[in-house]
Automatic annotation (TrEMBL):
The keyword ATP-binding does not apply. One of its GO terms (cellular component) is plasma membrane. It is found in: Cell membrane. This is Permease. The keyword NADP does not apply. InterPro entries: DUF318, UPF0718_permease. Keywords: Cell membrane, Membrane, Transmembrane, Transmembrane helix. The chain crosses the membrane at residues 12-37, 57-79, 91-112, 118-137, 235-253, 265-282, 303-325, 331-352.
Amino acid sequence: MSPEFITMLKEAANMFAFLAVELTILFLAISYLVGILQEYITPAKIQSILSSRNGKGYFVAALLGSITPFCSCSTIPFLKGLLRARAGFGPMMVFLFASPLLNPVIIGLFVVTFGVDVAVFYFAIAMSVSVISGYALEKLGFEKYVRKEAYETTESSSGCGTSCGEKAEKVEKTSCCDEKPAPVTSCCDAKPEPVSCCATADVEVNANGQATMTVKEESRWVRVWRSTWKDFKQVLPYLLLGISVGSFIYGFIPTDLIAKYAGNATWYAIPVAAIIGIPLYIRAEAVIPLSAALVKKGMAMGSVMALIIGSAGASLTEVILLKSLFKNQMIAAFLTVILGMAIAAGFLYTYLFG
């Protein structure tokens, strides 16, 4: 191997190691803190305060979206819950726009990767466009493009009813496991003793073949950590993919090539980056480290901003899922907002800081 190739390989490996360690620590720390916060802000509370009767509902929806670390697709099940709870249409749309764009992991990655100034600009654009778009869509009457079946409440086959804390016979209790032994198919499998849904059971078998079960209540802190670690394992492949591609670009792709086609002098780079981002469905955890390498190689920050917003804010998979909730007119409006936000952010950043 030539000395030049070895040098490029070392640069790529160093970049990979640095980003892998830094972003892993950041993801785990922020996700854990958000998990603790979500212990106190339940979905039921969120649904109860998202009202469009006053202006506060729109800003509350944006703020709640900013503390829920969802990707664009995982926002859809939560949106279904809001629809069935008859939350305000405008605030629901604000939540749909803001949730995948403003979660703390993305903001933290922005701060670490591009600096506080870029992170604040991104947050301000995503927050303001989400609120304005949600308000405008409601005032323009786009609620009529929500499918009627989206408001229907589905029956649960679980013995605990439609939620973990509600049995079919409407027994009042503080948790789904405060009742007598339930059927095995329910969320609280029948045990000799009541077992919390958040408990762990250790089973020991003695020499006579008799089993003894010891139930241990799991603390809130441990439960949140388990959830954080589970989320991290799900995101890890995407994170490593983004870091790997970014490290390869950083080490092997010539700077002049990227600067030529995606630099400040190329006016079409911003809309192209925004359009490309949507069908690619690159998670923000992957596209941000990838973008860091592109910036170091000469890609304009405006184009990077458009790519991140386009990829994190919408995807083809999300559009398919939204078809079960929205009619085509609403889906077109949703894509228009995300695409417009991405392009506007790119050009505005170039105008202000370029």
